[in-house]
Specification:
Radius of gyration: 19 Å
Largest sheet: 6 strands, antiparallel
Strand order of the largest sheet: 8-7-18-15-10-11
Number of domains: 2
Number of strands: 19
Order of helices and strands: EHEHEHEEHEEEEEEEHEEEEEEEH
CATH topology of the largest domain: Tumour Suppressor Smad4
Strand content: 35-45%
CATH class of the largest domain: Mainly Beta
Length: 280
């Protein structure tokens, strides 16, 4: 793969990210490399620039990466994360490695892996809808701001799985299995596998803790009873739900591609390293 044009998506509220963006611009200008930059949440600019871009480099933490992933899901441009956050499960390098990693990109010293993403739809009152969205990590159906549980009917394809009285339900991709689903007691999946993880959040008297289903299956979650409920997409966008609404989640057919520079820490080593940083 030849890299001739690079985009940089960054967190505009983070001073360290702005400094890293300036370093990246300076490096590209010195080497005469075609480049551009924009805030990760600037969908208009990303949508305009990505079709002619070879790699999108994300400067920030996992939240910044997830915002950028929304854009590349449509444009099919490989992503590379440079971590500035606390955990950085989605990144393949740290800030001090920026310039060496850019050299690797230009020299083709990297591979590209595929990650399964999710597509969801909200069926208002259970009726068919065009209200769809994409998530790299997870789609969560949860209670609102008040500390009241919700009652959710969950089905896998046409089979009723369970009725959960809980704080909510997480449907995660393999990449997202290290996030909210993991915190709720779900398993960690290899990020290059293709499965959906279904995990209730603080389920009351529930015998089911978490299940893993095929990417060919559809997870349906119907709101049976709730004072307030919402659907959260990658933790960056919330949509209000009413009793009777159904949230459908399935695997996105086209994967999102991740750039992995040669020598980057393998996932399971990264997991061990990051988990060791968690407070106990």
């Amino acid at each position: 793969m030849s890299v001739r044009r690079i985009g940089f998506a960054f967190n505009p509220t983070n001073d360290a990210a702005l400094e890293l963006r300036d370093r990246a611009r300076s490096w590209c200008q010195t080497g005469g490399l075609d480049h551009w930059s924009a805030p990760a949440g600037d969908g208009e600019t990303l949508g305009r620039e990505l079709p002619s871009t070879d790699v999108l480099v994300v400067l920030g933490g996992d939240g910044t990466f997830l915002r950028a992933a929304q854009a590349v899901a449509l444009a099919d441009v490989p992503l590379l994360g440079i971590n500035l956050g606390k955990m950085g499960f989605l990144s393949k390098a740290e800030a001090h490695q920026l310039e060496p990693v850019l050299v690797q990109l230009i020299e083709g010293d990297f591979t590209v892996g595929e990650r399964m993403a999710l597509t969801g739809a909200i069926l208002r009152g259970g009726r068919p809808s065009e209200e769809t969205f994409t998530a790299l990590n997870d789609i969560v159906v949860a209670r609102g701001s008040l500390a009241r549980v919700v009652r959710l009917d969950v089905a896998i394809d046409e089979s009723h799985l369970a009725t959960f009285v809980s704080d909510g339900l997480v449907v995660a991709s393999p990449t997202g299995s290290t996030g909210y689903s993991f915190s709720a007691g779900g398993p960690v999946l290899d990020p290059q596998s293709r499965n959906l993880v279904v995990t209730p959040i603080a389920g009351y008297l529930s015998a089911l803790r978490s299940i893993v289903v095929s990417p060919k299956q559809v997870v349906r979650c119907r709101v049976v009873d709730a004072f307030e409920a919402l659907a959260s997409i990658d933790g960056r966008e919330d949509r209000k739900l009413q009793v009777g609404d159904v949230v459908e989640v399935r695997a996105l057919e086209r994967p999102i591609r991740f750039v992995e520079p040669t020598g980057a820490l393998p996932f399971w080593d990264l997991l061990r390293t990051k988990v060791a940083l968690l407070p106990y």
